[in-house]
């Protein structure tokens, strides 16, 4: 997990979603917006249709924060919101699903 100062609140997520043009991947959409903080901030939106339970949602949320914390970013300070598409289905017991989730995230992070 990353500390709270690097996460976005619900109000800030809505601001980012309405402000900038998104980047698309097969199952995840990345919206970003410059901020006035001295660090990058992140959020992920997982639809209830994308996962079977809260346990799986938290699993993929933690996986997301682990990937983001290990990624090296440029010196621009940006807010990032990753939105999982509604038709995308994740299963924590399926290795293929976990690898696909990681691959999709790395593809979007590489576009930045």
Brief summary:
By secondary structure, the chain is an alpha+beta fold. Helices cover 39% and strands 19% of the residues.
What does this protein look like?
The protein is an alpha+beta fold. Helix content is 39%, strand content 19%. α2 packs across α3. The longest helix has 17 residues, at 54-70. The protein starts with 9 loop residues before the first helix and ends with a helix. The model has no long low-confidence stretch (mean pLDDT 86).
Please supply descriptive tags for the structure shown above.
alpha+beta, 112 residues, 19% strand, globular, 4-stranded mixed beta sheet
- Helix coverage percent: 25-40%
Please tally the β strands and state the result: 4
Calculate Rg over CA atoms. 13 Å
Global geometry: globular
List the helices and strands in order.
HEEEHEH
Distance between the termini: 22 Å
Q: Which residues form runs of ≥5 with pLDDT under 50?
A: none
The averaged pLDDT comes out at 86
The structure class reads: alpha+beta
Side-by-side strand order of the widest sheet: 1-2-4-3
Percent in strands: 15-25%
Describe the largest sheet.
4 strands, mixed
Q: State the helix count.
A: 3
